[in-house]
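Database export, one record per block. Field names are fixed; values are copied verbatim from the stored entry.
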Amino acid sequence: MNWVVLTETLRRNWRSALWWGIGLGIAAWINIIAVPNVESIQQIAELLETMPPFMMQMFGVNDMTFMASPEGYLALQLFAFFPLVLAVYGAIVGMNIVSNEEDRGIMDSLLSTPVKRWRVVMEKSLAYGLLTVFVVAVMFVWVLISLAMVPDVTAQVNVGELTVGIFAFVPQTWIVMGVAAMFTGLLRNRSLAIGLVAVFVIASYFLNTLGSAVTDSIINTLRPLSYFSYLDSEAIMQGNANLIALLVPGLVAVITVAIGMWGFQRRDEGI
């Protein structure tokens, strides 16, 4: 096994992953340095208290005392926004595993070699999985730089808990990549695959947000079906992270990639 597909995928895509990490890092930097001290965070919390409880619960805010702390502010600013942006990255790289390569004619050339179809999907999935870790790691470096610039805030933040939370973005992104790989492996229709991935992400997002807000409804009962629900920002930043739950999206990603490998092995290439 020379892993040529994996290494070539890494070589061709590490620069774009770097720019993704830098872009996300700058966005995180802006959010963190915007509140240089605890008093600013408390003022934001007071403003949030004027919003209807329903809206606050949709954003995952249940404890306003916690939200008035630096860790609460980071939980709101980082965990409410970045997983959704990273879902876009996951969808893009997931489409690159099969569908986009077919459209460019690259898959046709690749499959003219002795390499098996399932192995192409496996190696490209591994490569993009590693690139996802790289994106989040670059973003994390920017977060550390940001925290160094606001020492009053940093003094009240457990960096270990923040590290766990940010790198929990990785399996959150993997699952979107895996779902995209599954649909493009099973289906030759690229537009249909894109639509199904979009439905998966959007439905997961609203199932999680509405389920958080309406606790006595069937939507709340169905909330575990949303992969966003496994990223509990308050629990993570308060030191009560459920590490097994954080890894659930990663496990589902492995299963969906395996289904994509099986589907692409069985179907004709869409040229």
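Remark 1: Residues 24 and 139 are 6 Å apart (CA to CA).
Remark 2: The chain has a mean pLDDT of 84.
End of record.
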